[in-house]
């Protein structure tokens, strides 16, 4: 009898799984929310469904090829990835790119930020069940996509960077076209900011939801708009200005509320800042060459570089061994830094209904942050296998499944000799 | 209006088959309006019909862990509830197919029974999304049911009859009740949105959290029947509010225009508001909805006593 009572008490808690396939998720990831009624008491996350081995693939490609490869790490911030990587390569090769190229890189980065933030605005509103905002912001995002397509030839992976500079020049005609479109976009963004600040039902879903203080955010290592929404002054464009931002500085947008609404406000205000920056810089792009010659082989060495991607700090480590290929490329994306703020801090105590919006609040990008980590620690059962061993294991395993012994027919030997 | 043969009225027109067909039109209009408000194209005219047609022809998968008979019976029961309720409601300016004393209570009871069926369908399954969805459906039922019922009972109080047809007659011969009882009208309209689980009260089937709520495990015919039941419920709700608050039984064209205008209002609210959490929904209904309708009730009583 008592056992039953205890069991029935236990059964009040149960796990609501979200993902890997779920209507709320546009990319695969797995979350488990332990709920008591509607209140979430525990959260866990499992990533790695879209690990693609980009870092490993980079090691067998030339420097130029790797640039196009890393642009495909993320479909939304492809320019940030390309810039972060190529800055490393240029630093190792000892190349200084022309100022005009630097500024064009910065402008492309800001256009990308506009499209990323508009995309996020739509997704986050959709997660809260506000589909009208979703539809309208994605319609307006098409304007940014048109700019990207007209200028760089592609809507998504636009490859502005080439090793040693940029591919496309900003002509006066394009600048004029850009200004007209930015004017319209600014009008629309003002409207969205009004909705975010004033709409009663929208505020009911965002104000004081997912609040995290400055100390907690710092402890958990949040970056990007997520950190800035809690008042942490952390913006790579300002802290360590890279291409273009060292010539013309950009302002940092801060908010001190740290809740979901602050994340909306910070991102929208960043859009205004981006528009202002693009407008200002278009007036005074330095004249000069677009690119300098880039060597085929890069001297041995190590380099690190950070770029402020729309989601936060994007970090690249590159090691060269003096050949045509990089020896090691390490990527750390902003989403990975921000996961901790949700899973270990914000989720607990909130309602299940708030979870999709809180999850979307950090602007997660799943396929960017999936990395393989090989931990060789004190645990005995951790194993390091060579490729040969793995292959042998695979052959044996499948032979066992088929029901014959490989060593008898000599396939194994044959392959080993080969 | 000339009297129709009772059986014809029951099965073909205005209740029965015609009602199901017209409910497709209203679903299409609702979806199309929301789509246009949201700057989308929206579905084609025959889309809802095609959806239902396809669903009814599809295999119905019975998941593991459910009570099989209940699983199969609930959609039919829900459908039957709604179709029975429709018999007492005058549609499109035609007299109701049937009327007995106190049929307003019966109609409201049957409409609530349909929601209870939804809740049972959710709790019947072992799917966690369905269970959470069912909990929310039933919680929401307790939230809007009281105010919504009061909002529909107030015309009855004024007309001094519990029969829908006599209230309709009263409404046709007097000032529109939207003028005399504006609060009741607002509560009724918002209550209808809550009853149909449309945005912003769609927490019970919030796809971002709990996939499809109580109906997560339903497919094929069962899902199709639930869908028809909800569409018909929409038409019944619109018709009831139109009859009670917008001038009773008038000629069919005018009546349809009134219903479409009501639908426009509902669609506008659906597309401009953010989904409320279930606790916010309940809070809103008990803090604002209930008090508003009670105030309206008090006004009616005071006026009548004087």
From TrEMBL, chain A:
* Positions bound to Fe cation: 77, 368
* Sites where the protein binds Mg(2+): 55, 331
Alphabetically sorted, this entry's keywords are: Iron, Magnesium, Metal-binding, Nickel, Oxidoreductase
**Out of the domains of life, which is the source?**
Bacteria
Q: Which cofactors are reported in the record for this sequence? A: Fe cation; Ni(2+)
Residues annotated for Ni(2+) binding in this entry: 74, 77, 365
Where's the NADH-quinone oxidoreductase subunit D domain? 129-293, 297-371
Keyword Phosphoprotein recorded: no
What GO molecular-function term can you cite, just one? Answer: ferredoxin hydrogenase activity
Coiled-coil positions are: none
Q: Which InterPro entries match?
A: ComplexI_49kDa-like, NADH_Q_OxRdtase_suD, Ni-dep_hyd_lsu, Ni-dep_hyd_lsu_Ni_BS, NiFe-Hase_large
- Alphabetized PROSITE patterns for the sequence: NI_HGENASE_L_1
A Pfam family annotated for this UniProt entry: NiFeSe_Hases
Q: What is this protein called?
A: Ni,Fe-hydrogenase III large subunit
TrEMBL record, chain B:
Q: Which InterPro entries does the record cross-reference, listed alphabetically?
A: ComplexI_Subunit1, NADH_UbQ_OxRdtase_su1/FPO
According to the UniProt record, one GO cellular component term is: plasma membrane
> Which Pfam family is an annotated match for this chain, by its short name?
NADHdh
Provide the alphabetized UniProt keywords: Membrane, Transmembrane, Transmembrane helix, Ubiquinone
The record describes its membrane topology as: Multi-pass membrane protein
Q: Where are the transmembrane segments?
A: 7-26, 70-92, 104-122, 142-164, 176-194, 234-253, 260-278, 284-303
Biological classification of the source: Bacteria, Bacillati, Chloroflexota, Anaerolineae, Anaerolineales
Q: Which protein, by its recorded name, is this?
A: NADH:ubiquinone oxidoreductase subunit 1
Which superkingdom?
Bacteria
Keyword Transmembrane present in the record's keywords: the answer is: yes
Q: Which compartment or compartments is the protein found in?
A: Membrane
């Amino acid at each position: 009898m008592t056992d039953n009572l205890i069991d029935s008490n236990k059964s009040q808690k149960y796990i609501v799984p979200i993902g890997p396939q779920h209507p709320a998720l546009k990319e695969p990831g797995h979350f488990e929310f332990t709920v008591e009624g509607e209140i979430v008491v525990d959260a866990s996350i499992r990533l790695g469904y879209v690990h693609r081995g980009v870092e490993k693939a980079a090691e067998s490609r030339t420097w130029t090829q790797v640039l196009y490869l890393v642009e495909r790490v993320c479909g939304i911030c492809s320019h940030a990835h390309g810039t972060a990587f190529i800055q490393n390569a240029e630093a190792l090769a000892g190349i200084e790119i022309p100022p005009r190229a630097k500024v064009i890189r910065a402008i492309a980065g800001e256009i990308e930020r506009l499209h990323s933030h508009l995309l996020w605005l739509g997704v986050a509103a959709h997660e809260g069940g506000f589909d009208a905002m979703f539809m309208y912001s994605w319609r307006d995002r098409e304007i940014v996509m048109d700019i990207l397509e007209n200028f760089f030839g592609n809507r998504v992976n636009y490859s502005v960077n080439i090793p040693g500079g940029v591919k496309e020049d900003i002509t006066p005609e394009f600048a004029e076209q850009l200004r007209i479109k930015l004017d319209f976009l600014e009008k629309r963004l003002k409207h969205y900011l009004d909705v975010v600040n004033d709409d009663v039902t929208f505020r009911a879903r965002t104000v004081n939801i997912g609040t995290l203080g400055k100390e907690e955010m710092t402890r958990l290592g949040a970056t990007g708009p997520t950190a800035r929404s809690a008042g942490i002054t952390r913006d790579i464009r300002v802290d360590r200005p890279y291409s273009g931002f060292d010539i013309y500085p950009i302002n940092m947008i801060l908010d001190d509320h740290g809740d979901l609404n602050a994340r909306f406000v910070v991102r929208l205000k960043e859009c205004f800042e981006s528009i202002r920056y693009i407008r200002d810089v278009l007036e005074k792009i330095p004249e000069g060459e677009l690119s300098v010659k880039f060597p085929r082989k890069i001297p041995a060495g190590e380099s690190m570089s950070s770029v402020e991607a729309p989601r936060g700090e994007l970090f690249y480590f590159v090691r060269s061994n003096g050949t045509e290929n990089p020896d090691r490329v390490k990527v750390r994306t902003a989403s990975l830094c921000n996961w901790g703020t949700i899973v270990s801090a914000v989720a607990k105590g909130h309602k299940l209904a708030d979870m999709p919006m809180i999850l979307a609040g950090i602007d997660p990008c799943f396929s960017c942050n999936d990395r393989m980590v090989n931990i060789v620690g004190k645990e005995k059962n951790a194993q390091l296998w060579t490729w040969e061993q793995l292959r042998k294991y695979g052959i044996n395993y499948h032979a066992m499944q088929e029901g014959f012994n490989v060593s008898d027919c000599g396939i194994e030997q044959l392959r080993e000799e080969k | 209006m000339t009297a129709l043969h009772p059986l014809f009225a029951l099965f073909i027109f205005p209740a029965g088959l015609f009602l199901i067909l017209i409910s497709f039109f209203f679903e299409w209009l609702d979806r199309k309006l929301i789509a246009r408000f949201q700057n989308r194209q929206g579905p084609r005219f025959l889309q809802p019909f095609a959806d239902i047609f396809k669903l009814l022809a599809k295999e119905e998968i019975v998941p593991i862990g459910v009570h099989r008979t209940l699983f199969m019976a609930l959609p039919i029961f829900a459908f039957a509830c709604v179709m029975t309720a429709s018999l007492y409601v005058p549609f499109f300016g035609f007299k109701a197919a049937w009327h007995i004393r106190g049929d307003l209570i019966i109609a409201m009871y049957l409409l609530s029974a349909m929601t209870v069926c939804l809740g049972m369908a959710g709790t019947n399954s072992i799917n966690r999304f369905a269970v959470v969805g069912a909990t929310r459906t039933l919680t929401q039922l307790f939230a809007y049911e009281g105010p919504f019922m009061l909002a529909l009972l107030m015309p009855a109080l004024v007309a001094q009859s519990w029969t829908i047809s006599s209230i309709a007659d009263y409404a046709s011969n007097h000032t529109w009740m939207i003028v005399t009882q504006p609060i009741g009208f607002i509560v009724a309209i918002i209550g209808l949105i809550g009853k149909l689980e449309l945005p912003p009260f769609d927490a019970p089937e919030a796809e971002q959290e709990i996939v499809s709520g109580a109906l997560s495990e339903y497919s094929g015919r069962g899902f199709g029947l639930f869908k028809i039941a909800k569409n018909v419920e929409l038409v019944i709700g619109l018709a009831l509010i139109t009859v009670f608050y917008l001038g009773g039984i008038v000629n069919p064209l005018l009546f349809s225009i009134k219903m479409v205008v009501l639908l426009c209002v509902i669609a506008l609210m659906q597309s401009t508001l953010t989904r409320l959490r279930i606790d916010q929904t309940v809070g809103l209904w008990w803090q604002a909805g209930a008090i508003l309708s009670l105030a309206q009730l008090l006004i009616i009583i005071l006026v009548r006593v004087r």
